[in-house]
Amino acid sequence: MRILSGIKPTGNLTLGNYIGALKHFKDFQDSGEVYIFIADLHALTLPIDPEFLRDNTRDVASFYLASGLDPKKTTIFLQSSVSEHAELNAILQNYLYMGELSRMTQFKDKSAKLKQSAIGLGLFAYPVLMASDIVLYDADVVPVGEDQIQHVELTRDLVKRFNARYGEVLVEPKYQMNKVGARIMSLTDPSVKMSKSDPKGDIFLKDDLATIRKKIMSAKTDSGSEVKFDKENKPGISNLLTIYASIKGMSIEEAEKQFTAARYGEFKKAVADAVIEEIGPFQERYKQIRESGEYLAVLREGAQKAKQIAHQTLKRVQNAVGLLNIDEL
Ligand code: TYM
Fold it and tell me: What tens digit of pLDDT does each residue of 89-132 get?
């Protein structure tokens, strides 16, 4: 089984990225061949300062290693160091259509914040590159948070369309989403997703522990006093319960049971303790890796390994669509 996922280095990673994706990548290491990459080409789809992008890229690489990904088991690489991503993108863009791309929630949300004249083609065509990332490694499973499911579904549509025309060339991927924590909400407004690009109410993985505690203690709660999971009437408490349960690796019901007699303040303190207990040591590992620069060798080796697979798939696709391979004639 091949497993593939990635994170965009567009800003400070949030607790949402950690709970919805990063924390779980390592769990796949013993069940298959894992490819985890930094989606730096995707980071260009909205304006970003070059230094900031480079810095974030180093951060994401260090976070990957700090999360327990083992480069001996997992191929960790930078998207832009494997040129096959862009080459496959150039072919696959012909098999997704304007209508379906314009219906993508992420595109609608992000483009709504821009003037029509400032919406880049890359933002619109984002799912084509993401599909290329996935099929390039014949990935069977793509672990993601809820907001990326639509893109994986579109990849499946593309694969079906492509294979119907050319035979069984591409592998159809499935997404895998966590039962608990696939959508962590903002702490100040639990009706919106916690997101790198909308930092209000976020917990950042680089926040110092005192700030993390403060943010959780002042998270928006709901009327009433019971700690109960009820997304509709208690979105703030439900979000905190989700954070607690996913950090502790338990179900929502188990988490709820622990707090049947607790007041909000006491409950928030327990959530803050749990997050700090996990993120504290993670930050220590991150700092050490980031300072040592050891992630650079990992990325170099990862790119070489990734390229071997990517190159084979690209050739297969080029051949299927009828591009003449002059090296083999
Ligand atoms: P990105 O960088 O926005 O997010 C990385 C991962 O974090 C998850 N996530 C969340 N999970 C729970 N709660 C949240 N509030 C939250 N916010 C983010 C995302 O669902 C994602 O799994 N397009 C992708 C990167 C990408 C990719 C790929 C992923 C490019 N190519 C191929 C998988 C396969 C993205 O922008 O993720």
Answer: 999 999 999 999 999 999 999 999 999 889 999 999 999 999 99
Mutational pocket test of ligand 1: of 53, 75, 130, 148, the residue with most ligand atoms within 8 Å of the beta carbon:
148
Q: Does residue 203 contact residue 215 with C-beta atoms inside 8 Å? A: yes
Of 23, 193, 234, 268, the catalytic one is 193
CA dist., res. 124 & res. 106, Å (int): 9
Structure-derived torsion over alpha carbons of residues 208, 194, 289, 304, reported in degrees to the nearest 10: -170
Pocket of ligand 1, beta carbon within 6 A? 4-8, 16-17, 19-21, 39, 42, 130, 133-134, 142, 144-145, 147-148, 182-184, 193-195
Calculated CA dihedral for residues 301, 61, 38, 176, nearest 10 degrees? 100
**Whole-model pTM over 0.85:** yes
Question: Which pLDDT band, with edges at 50, 70 and 90, does 198 fall under?
Answer: low
